[in-house]
Known about the structure:
Helix content: 55-70%
Number of domains: 1
GO molecular function: 2 iron, 2 sulfur cluster binding; metal ion binding
Family: Belongs to the Bfd family.
Keywords: 2Fe-2S, Electron transport, Iron, Iron-sulfur, Metal-binding, Transport
Oligomer: single chain
Strand order of the largest sheet: 1-2
InterPro entries: BFD-associated_ferredoxin, BFD-like_2Fe2S-bd_dom, BFD-like_2Fe2S-bd_dom_sf
CATH topology: Arc Repressor Mutant, subunit A
Protein name: Bacterioferritin-associated ferredoxin
Order of helices and strands: EEHHH
CATH class: Mainly Alpha
Strand content: 5-15%
Largest sheet: 2 strands, antiparallel
Amino acid sequence: xxxxxxxGVTDHQIRExxxxxxxxxxxxxxALDVANQCGxxxxxxxxxxxxxxxxxxxxxxxxxxxxx
Length: 68
């Protein structure tokens, strides 16, 4: 689904950027140029960022359990 209509950025691209290390809105703006024009996508980008970071944290914790 398109999240940023101004730049044509999809939720998949945002999730991919997070998986590649984006951990802030500043990182997403640098990588995908989202929330720089009209700003309407900012809330959804932040929501996807928080979701991705929580998933990454949960995955990291699960990996620690497996390694122990």
